[in-house]
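Incident review: delayed structure delivery

Summary: a single-chain prediction request sat in the queue longer than the usual turnaround. Root cause was a stuck worker, restarted by the on-call engineer. No data loss occurred. The affected request and its eventual output are reproduced below so the record is complete for anyone auditing the incident later.

Affected input:
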Amino acid sequence: MRLMREIEDNNASMAQLNTKILQANVVLRNLLRNQLDLEDQINIRTNSIGIDEVKVVPLRRTINVQEY
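Output delivered after worker restart:
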């Protein structure tokens, strides 16, 4: 009788652990997706800064703004 109780307790513990593993995997997938999104945003901003430095800054230097 006591052995059956221990087996049931172990099975319940294993079920809880499996649930936690599944939840952790969901969280991990979300974190990886967020990482990819952030890397994409960083690449876009890096490219924007590069375009600004190459094309826009030289144009700004040619503009003469006088204070009144």
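Verification: DSSP finds one helix and no strands in the chain.
Action items: add queue-age alerting; document worker restart procedure.
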